UniProtKB/TrEMBL annotation:
Pfam families to which the protein is assigned, alphabetical: Ubie_methyltran
Keywords attached to this entry: Menaquinone biosynthesis, Methyltransferase, S-adenosyl-L-methionine, Transferase
Name assigned to this protein: Demethylmenaquinone methyltransferase
Catalytic activity as recorded in UniProt: a 2-demethylmenaquinol + S-adenosyl-L-methionine = a menaquinol + S-adenosyl-L-homocysteine + H(+)
Origin species: Salicibibacter cibarius
Residues annotated as binding S-adenosyl-L-methionine: T58, D78, N105, A106
Lineage: Bacteria, Bacillati, Bacillota, Bacilli, Bacillales
Recorded metabolic or biological pathway in which this protein acts: Quinol/quinone metabolism; menaquinone biosynthesis; menaquinol from 1,4-dihydroxy-2-naphthoate: step 2/2
Gene name in the database record: menG
């Protein structure tokens, strides 16, 4: 089953690579960039940080991270070579020499343990065959005390908003994909979004993978969520910034 999912998702992204960025803007009403920028406010960047962007796709988050580095390196990894080709054109256009894009699998990251200060994943965790394994891989390649961040679709908690959310992803979004991108491949986005867990469950997955000080915040009424956690090994209390949204940060309660 997992291999079938991986092959299917790979086929989807290989086929939509040249239209992916355009459709991202249409589907999220261009809010995804604001959400990513808000998540980046809480990243513990230093000029020499080494950053890994998992499921990097066309490298938007990779490039954004690289802009905070002087001497550090931002590496993006993705299993779709065609998505990476689009990303390489962006990197070339931006003239960034500290960005490197690597073909690889999120379930078996091609990097040594304790290699990165920060690991990000944006709208990719729901697409991997085993999200738990991917989270454990992210933890493995982080240095002790390193930070992981995830931006992903979620499940709205408001009972009035939830039907509208479902209607949009099940009825409207596939049609948008067909009209703007000329393909029905975006039906996969509906499937993966509606089957992905809510914020608290994903926070539990982070903790289950071994992350500590796990927290999360909501975007667009819960249609998307940002999560973060740290690899054990760094002393001192961490306090993140509030999300620039209608919802405040939530810290996972291990007693729940």
């Amino acid at each position: 089953m997992n291999k079938d999912k991986e092959n299917h998702v790979h086929d989807v992204f290989e086929s939509i690579s040249n239209r992916y960025d355009r459709m991202n803007g249409v589907i999220s009403l261009k809010m995804h960039t604001r959400w990513r920028n808000d998540m980046m406010k809480r990243i513990d960047f230093s000029p020499t940080s080494n950053v890994l962007d998992v499921c990097a796709g066309t490298a938007d988050w990779t490039i954004a991270s690289a802009g905070h580095l002087q001497g550090g390196e931002a590496i993006g990894v993705d299993f779709s070579e065609r998505m990476l080709e689009v990303g390489r054109e962006k990197v070339k256009k931006a003239g960034m020499e500290n960005v490197h894009l690597v073909h690889g699998n999120a379930s078996q990251l091609p990097f040594d343990a304790d290699s990165f200060d920060v690991v990000t994943i944006g709208f990719g965790l729901r697409n991997v065959p085993d999200p738990h394994l991917t989270l454990m891989e992210m933890l493995r390649v982080l240095k002790p005390g390193g930070q992981a961040l995830c931006l992903e679709t979620s499940q709205p908690e408001n009972v009035l908003f939830r039907p509208l959310y479902g209607f949009y992803f099940q009825r409207i979004m596939p049609k948008l994909g067909k009209w703007f991108a000329g393909t029905d491949k975006y039906e996969w986005l509906n499937e993966s979004t509606m089957n992905f867990p809510d914020k608290q469950t994903l926070a539990d997955w982070f903790a289950g993978a071994g992350f500590e000080n796990v927290g999360y915040c909501s975007y667009a009424g819960g249609a998307a969520a940002g999560h973060w956690g740290y690899k054990p090994g760094r002393k001192g209390k961490r306090e993140g910034n509030m999300c620039d949204t209608e919802n405040q940060d939530h810290i996972r309660n291990d007693k729940i």
